[in-house]
Design brief:
Length: 473
């Protein structure tokens, strides 16, 4: 097992001072699964005070005795916990004498394996459950969930992240005691939910939450779409469509905000549904949904920035776009509403929405064409406004009044800049103005027309390249 020297050093230092020291929890599970651990947790029979003496450079600010050393490594004394009156925190914490006592109060068998290299302490057949790919509570599942009700959601999270199944007795205990979730803080629920949503099996995780009766205590509005039939344009009911949209977003490794928006983009449909069967309508569901999502995310303590972005993605996910009907101006308007930084994510939500509807292509010609228009609209147009001089400079240098000559001079100067952008310097352009002022009207008109023709060719070439980029004609 590849254990960093820093971690080995901590273990050896504890042992050198006469204490038992074990790696425990998720890092041992990951090592056994040949996954590189993100965090390293150590448990020991040393007290918090004794740990602090051995590692003077430490940090401790919790009632569980956890001492953080070397910046990020957590060392916790063996402990046993008493009653959990509030289903969240132990009424009091007591130090245990053995690793066996400590492992008995942990959540799942796969997290209850301790490593005192090369010796493995596995009292609850955690290695066997790793091989079987099962999430199973330590001892009696109901007791573990009574200690911390969030463990019910953590079971789903581990099953989703690791692509495991939940043991039947553990699942039955979750179904029976799902209402205990009401005791858990919204911040802790949010954090577990995000870990599920960011897993590769995000859609399976959300479905597990529903099947186990937990979803109604997290996002009940999402479950309201279960078996709510849609119109003839949709293959699936509202809930399944949402799940499949999230599945596509997870497969494509889209961002957290896109995944949440994909999952919740049609949450307003049950409230806005009118009629039934294949002719049912959901007019304005994106507006209703955006308002609902704002409340949901507020309730789950998401940040204001996250809430603003996700609600915009939902509010505008139904943007209208037909190749021959939508103008650059309307596209610019949409970009302003959503924000230039979020327009690509809006298109990703639309793609997830399409796949979630049962269509074969996530990015049809329409969406590719819209990407082309967005990029085209975002570019600064090639015009004389790009120049470091203007008509006023020309009138001042040539001592002339407003006339067609000014426009012709600007056209020629723009031609010089298109040939070499380095020419767009005021000193250079002013010198050229003086030269052009000496030409006859006929000569200047010829140069102006040639320059305009070159400009049109540059614009056409750029446009052709942008079209090729998105495979549009």
């Amino acid at each position: 097992m590849d254990i960093p020297k820093k971690i080995e050093g901590i273990l050896k230092k504890l042992e050198k001072n006469g204490y038992k020291a074990y790696l425990v929890g998720g890092c041992v599970r990951d090592l056994l699964m040949d996954i590189e651990p993100k965090d390293w947790d150590i448990t020991t029979d040393a007290s918090p005070e004794e740990i602090q003496k051995i590692f003077p450079d430490n940090f401790m600010n919790n009632k569980f005795g956890t001492v953080t050393v070397l910046g990020s490594v957590e060392i916790t004394p063996f402990r046993i916990e008493t009653k959990y009156t509030d289903k969240r925190h132990p009424d009091k914490v007591e130090w245990a004498k053995t690793i066996e006592e400590d492992l008995s109060r942990r959540d799942f068998t796969i997290n209850s394996i301790a490593l005192e290299f090369p010796k493995i302490v596995d009292l609850y057949k955690g290695q066997e459950d790793l091989k079987k790919r099962i999430v199973r509570a330590v001892g009696k599942a109901e007791d573990r969930f009574a200690e911390d009700a969030l463990r019910m959601m953590r079971a789903v999270r581990f099953a989703s992240v690791l692509d495991f199944t939940i043991d039947k007795k553990t699942a039955d205990a979750i179904k029976k005691n799902a209402p205990w979730m009401k005791a858990i803080s919204k911040e802790r629920i949010r954090d577990e939910l995000l870990k599920i949503i960011m897993s590769d099996n995000a859609s399976d995780g959300i479905e597990m939450l529903r099947e186990l009766g937990l979803l109604k205590y997290i996002i009940p509005e999402l479950e309201d779409g279960y078996r709510v039939a849609q119109s003839k344009h949709h293959t699936y009911d509202v809930y399944k469509h949402s799940i499949l949209s999230l599945k596509y977003a997870a497969q494509k490794k889209f961002s957290k905000d896109v995944r949440i928006a994909s999952l919740l983009h049609d949450i307003g449909k049950p409230k806005s549904k009118r009629g039934s069967g294949e002719n049912a309508t959901f007019y304005g569901h994106e507006v209703v949904g955006a308002k609902m999502v704002r409340q949901i995310l507020n309730h789950l303590r998401f940040s204001k920035k996250e809430i603003e972005k996700i609600t915009k993605l939902i509010r505008y996910h139904l943007f209208y776009y037909n190749v021959d009907e939508v103008t650059e101006a309307s596209v610019r308007k949409l970009v302003r509403k959503v924000g230039p930084e979020s327009i690509e994510e809006l298109l990703q939500v639309r793609m997830a929405d399409r796949i979630g509807s049962g269509v074969p292509k996530a990015e049809p010609y329409k969406l590719r064409h819209m990407k082309y228009i967005i990029e085209k609209a975002a570019k600064d147009p090639i015009s004389v406004k790009m120049l470091k001089v203007d008509g006023g400079d020309i009138m001042k240098i040539l001592k002339i009044k407003p006339s067609v000559k000014i426009g012709r001079v600007l056209d020629v100067l723009l031609g010089y800049v298109l040939v070499d952008p380095k020419n767009n310097k005021k000193a250079y352009l002013e010198r050229e103005i003086k030269k052009l002022g000496k030409l006859s009207d006929k000569e200047l008109d010829f140069l102006s027309k040639s320059s305009r023709k070159e400009r049109e060719e540059v614009i056409m070439k750029e446009d052709k390249m942008t079209k090729q980029k998105y495979w549009v004609t």
